[in-house]
Amino acid sequence: MILENIKDPAAIRKLKQKELDLLATEVRKRIVEVSSQNGGHLAPSLGAVEIAISLLHSFDPLKDRIVWDVGHQSYAWKILTGRNERFDTLRRLGGISGFTNRDESPYDAFSTGHSSTSVSAALGIACAKEHLRENNHSVAVIGDGALTGGMSFEALNHAGHLQKDKFLIILNDNSMSISKNVGGLQKYMARMLASKPYNAIKKQVWELSENLPENVRRRFILGAQKIEESMINILVPNIIFEDLGLKYLGPIDGHDIKQLCTMFRRIKRYMVGPVLLHVVTQKGRGYSPAEQDASRFHGVGPFESKTGQTICSGSESWSEVFGNSLCRIARENRKVVAITAAMADGTGLAPFEKEFPQRFYDVGIAEQHAVTFAAGMATKGIKPFVAVYSTFFQRALDQIIHDVALPRLPVVLCIDRAGLVGEDGATHHGAFDISYLNMVPNLQILAPTTSEELDAMLRYAAGYQDGPIAIRYPRGIAVCSGKPLKEFSPGKAKTIHKGKKIALLAAGDTLGLASEIWQKLKDKGHQPWLVNLISLKPLDEELLLEVGGGCQHVFTFESNSVIGGIGSRIAQILAEQACKVVNFGYPDHFVTHGKISELHDLIGFTADKLLADIEARLDG
């Protein structure tokens, strides 16, 4: 096997064409093998195998810096840059990350996890190289999905303005048909524009024009550019990149290693200024189940590698509860619409999209736009529900404050994956949403502990018109109490057990943890309060003051950073009480990747470890 002999990227540059093609097959097999055990972003990485191989064959990755957008297409890159032997540990505690990570390997030029950052980062690297007088390339690999993010266009515009040499953007387009868009004319045009003769002639024409009078030279250059642009326009639909100041090449077949390497070689030798190479790939390439259902295999849990069948518990996830509840509400309320940012399946909105296609909006990877778009709809009496993962909502904080909360618009923010999410790690944990939303005026924050509570909160939000509401819920299987909740009242907590001297106050999904500790304390002879906060903003201050006045110790629990979380707000409210308030949540550092249970144990967020802490404080 060729892969077994690849210990570092330098070995790839010595391989012949047939060996490179065979290597691609072996790498795909390795990706499927490990992803079936560990889960991960399978389809995106399968589609980018040839790109990774061609980049490593054509560039020196320690000198020519390669930035992968999001990083979920980079499994082949990881395997071929010295991490094949550890690839079995992908996304496991203590193992390698599911995204590129500067702390993990010197071959990872930039730490990633969120979308649409690659062009900005690679352009920054290109400018830094110029300051340092380094004569190497800077390359950004960005998918067509990431290109829907506004930040990428800000970077493209800046790149066109700066006109840096040795700056290459690879647009990995996996939503188009290769047979339709990659034909002979496009291939010929791409090769011609990147050829030595064409660029030499173009340079000579430009130099000759310098002898013309300025007003004539300006018209001459403009005319020549128009002719060139017209030629490209006939063959290529993506002239917008040329208008931004980038030299556009393609589209070409992103699975043809020979063609990719030829284009990279010509770009390196002959082209000046920023270049955008458009490559077309197939998501899930080489693995039939992923080719047939690329959406399901975009990010997948463990599955049977032979059949592609995923392992499923059969119970409703929190996302499914949300999606199904919103469908029921929408049947009764025609003003309800659903908005998401390229995550219809992940947020549970696929059934809504199918049943209400005219009331469903996927704005692409553009969370900022999603929130302000919802605000605009709300000004006309429409009721928008915006479903986004917690980690991605933080990208739209300005819009939440300025465009939604300040004018008190009734937008509902449905915060999926709140808390630790497991194997995707630090870039994807929803560890900060309470902290960054808690400071925003006019905004309610709700945290259900059961599927019935989530349903009731959504129904309440659908009828609320006096401002925005945020509802946060975790990843995983929802807790079902079997007791329908007909009404929901904001600002009211639920006392599950009334007690003495000790109080345990839980927010959202930490109620299970607090309940377990409550039982252990009770078994040891204590009589603690147990309170389900439910409404995090506004808080039930009346109940809190009652608890604080009658207890010596108050312990709060939340699946959020302990800094700036709901516990800190409770401590402020009870500051004049005699009780001691201790907050339990996530530590002041980024939590790594691994199973959620492993991560909780790692940070001490388990019943036994917290109980030991509590007992030490009670005895102190």
Task: Record keyword descriptors for this entry.
single chain, 620 residues, alpha/beta, Rossmann fold, 3 domains, seven-stranded mixed beta sheet, five-stranded parallel beta sheet, 25 helices
Notes on the protein architecture:
By secondary structure, the chain is an alpha/beta fold. The chain has three domains: 3-290, Rossmann fold (3-Layer(aba) Sandwich), CATH 3.40.50.970; 318-472, 3-Layer(aba) Sandwich (Rossmann fold), CATH 3.40.50; 494-619, Rossmann fold (3-Layer(aba) Sandwich), CATH 3.40.50.920. Helix content is 42%, strand content 15%. It has 25 helices and 17 strands. The strands form three sheets. The chain has a seven-stranded mixed beta sheet, sandwiched between helices. Strand 6, helix 15 and strand 7 form a beta-alpha-beta unit. 49% of the residues are buried. The model is unreliable at 176-182 (pLDDT under 50).
**Average pLDDT over all residues:** 91
Radius of gyration: 27 Å
Percent of residues in helices comes to 40-55%
User: Terminal Cα separation, in Å?
Assistant: 63 Å
What are the low-pLDDT stretches, counting only 5+ consecutive residues below 50?
A: 176-182
In the CATH hierarchy, the architecture of the largest domain is 3-Layer(aba) Sandwich
CATH topology of the largest domain: Rossmann fold
Summarize the structure.
This protein is of the alpha/beta class and 620 residues long.
Blueprint (SSEs and pairs):
Layout: H1 17-38, H2 42-47, H3 49-58, E1 65-68, H4 75-83, H5 118-131, E2 138-143, H6 150-162, E3 167-173, H7 178-181, H8 184-193, H9 196-208, H10 214-235, H11 240-243, E4 247-253, H12 257-270, E5 275-280, H13 288-292, H14 318-332, E6 336-340, H15 350-355, E7 360-362, H16 367-378, E8 383-389, H17 390-393, H18 397-405, E9 412-416, H19 433-438, E10 444-446, H20 451-463, E11 469-472, E12 494-497, E13 501-506, H21 511-523, E14 529-532, E15 535-537, H22 541-550, E16 551-561, H23 566-573, E17 580-586, H24 596-602, H25 607-619
Parallel strand pairs: 1-2, 2-3, 3-5, 4-5, 6-7, 6-8, 8-9, 9-11, 10-11, 13-14, 13-16, 16-17
Antiparallel strand pairs: 10-15, 12-14
